[in-house]
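Here is an idea for our session: we take a single protein and study its fold together. To get us started, please write out a protein record for me. Start from the sequence, derive the backbone structure tokens from it, and show both lines together. Go ahead whenever you are ready, and we will take it from there:
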Amino acid sequence: MDVLKRKLVFNETLNESNHSINSIENLSNEIFYEIFDYFDGGEIVKIFSKLNSRFEQLLHSSFILIKTHFYLFYYEEIMNKDHELEIFSNKLCSNLKILFINCSQNIIFFDAHRWEQLILHYYPQLEKFYLTYYDGINNNNQYPIYTGPVNQFSSSFWIQRKWIFHVQINGIYNKYMIYPYKKTWYNYIDDNNIEYSTSTSLIFTHFLTSSYDEMIFEQIKRVLTITKIYHLSISKEHSIHLAIQLINVLRDLITLKIHSLPSDETTSFTFEEFCTIASFKSRSKIAKVYIEEINDINDFHNISLFCPRMKFLQVKRFNINIQLCLRTFLKDIYNNNDICSIRSLCFDVRTMDDEIIQNFDIMIRSEKLLFDYTIKHVYNKIYLQWK
């Protein structure tokens, strides 16, 4: 409902009253429903929940739950005792469709079995579940202790509903999230065989520098006590050396998404890094890689070093000549057995026409870079596949 319509409805409701209104208590429920329509569920609870018994009844009415699209926020004072959640849930309607939970500092929210029982008992018709938990360090520089099993939120209960667990490292705190499955870059090609049990992702949203490395790995250590990570996404440019460390720690990765690699960074490795890189050939599980920006012709080579078993590579943007990059990379594939696993490339292009495809095709054939391959364009993307 837009603002003009809300004003008209509100004024009409007032005009229909047969007596003067000199107190907010004399306003009808319908007027309060219109007022509530300006706020989301969390704001309504915070503003009106402690005023008086009338507002408490309004907040727990099925009309208000529908009016706010079933958004429900439990804030900390409601959650001080374990049994309060069940008591509060018992007051709500059982046909709840969407549930939002925001919380922090209370590790009981990671009891997946408790959530399963709560949802099955109180919300059997729930279709979408959103849980956000902020795991921050307390005044004693300690996280709340987590003692539960790993991958609690990957049981059949969560997989059947396609409610996926994700982690975001954002500065000094870890943000844990559960929300309905969303189609991702690595499932666009083959979305008929999605493994929801291995959909947990770790996302870095802040710039990563060497001064934060120690804290980053402490946070990752914390994450791995809670869940395995299968997809890593880094939204900012980062060091090749840090990428090697991250992949070495996150042993279950099957996809990697990075923004870019620094073009001015030295690529000399320590003996320990050489040993780590060598081990990736036998134990790396990363099959799909996405890089947002290619800035240097050596980026392909560097990516292949720490993802030697990748089968699919997608590039969003080339900041250098795309045809030169493609030629160099395909020559490396042809001449280097270390990166022979890759079988598919995907490139975003700003303008797409048949001439671009023809130029690539002519280059590949004339220079014999590939045999038994297909090349096509779909939605401003070039897909190159070979056997």
Observations:
- The chain is about 35% helix and 20% strand.
- The first strand starts at residue 98 and ends at 104.
- Residues 1-68 form one domain.
- Residues 1-21, 62-80 have pLDDT under 50 and may be disordered.
